[in-house]
Amino acid sequence: MKKLSKSNRILILIAALLIIPAYFTPLWQISLWAPQYPEGLNMKIWIDHLSGNVDQINGVNHYIGMNHIGDEMFPEFTFLIYVIGGLIALGILAFLIGKRWSLYAFFWADDTLWYRSFGRYVPMGLRVWSYARSKSSHQSGGNELSASSDRI
Predict the structure, then answer these.
(1) How far apart are CA 140 and CA 149, in angstroms?
(2) What is the pLDDT of residues 114-141, one digit of tens each?
(3) How many angstroms separate the Cα of 5 from the Cα of each of 2, 11, 107?
(4) What is the per-residue DSSP string for 112-152?
(5) Which of 24, 32, 118, 142 is the most buried (most CB within 10 A)?
(6) First to last CA, the chain
(7) b/e string for 108-117 if b means 16 or more Cβ within 10 A?
(8) What pTM does this model have?
(9) Are 133 and 144 in contact (CB under 8 A)?
(10) Which range has highest mean pLDDT (41-55, 58-72, 132-146)?
């Protein structure tokens, strides 16, 4: 099989190394502002946990009838560390091996291990959509908002 050019190998290495900050920085941040909270409420989603004003956000969620937010809601927290570590390792291996098949393996792993991991049970977007439209069962006696309240 053909060898990769030196510039392609360097680009693969850079791509793999650019994933490393996921271990040290939040993957996502949610910021909320309201008159009751002039400093705002922030929740950061890390590779394996939530941080920030999660308890205060849960208090607001309880008040409006939304479900509790917690680490247990995200099954990805149990394996995301390994998925990202595997991607980094495959990228470095592709750089060291320098063959085209190693690049294909890196891209395949990126697709399979990263994107499909979030859809292990239900696609993440659907889970977020469902959560945003559900009420806490102890608040409403049910799990879904009426169709009229779903409209913007």
Answers:
(1) 13
(2) 566 555 544 555 656 566 666 555 444 4
(3) 9, 10, 17
(4) IIIIHHHTSSS-HHHHHHHHHTB--HHHHSSSB--GGGG--
(5) 118
(6) 55
(7) ebbeebeeeb
(8) 0.65
(9) yes
(10) 41-55
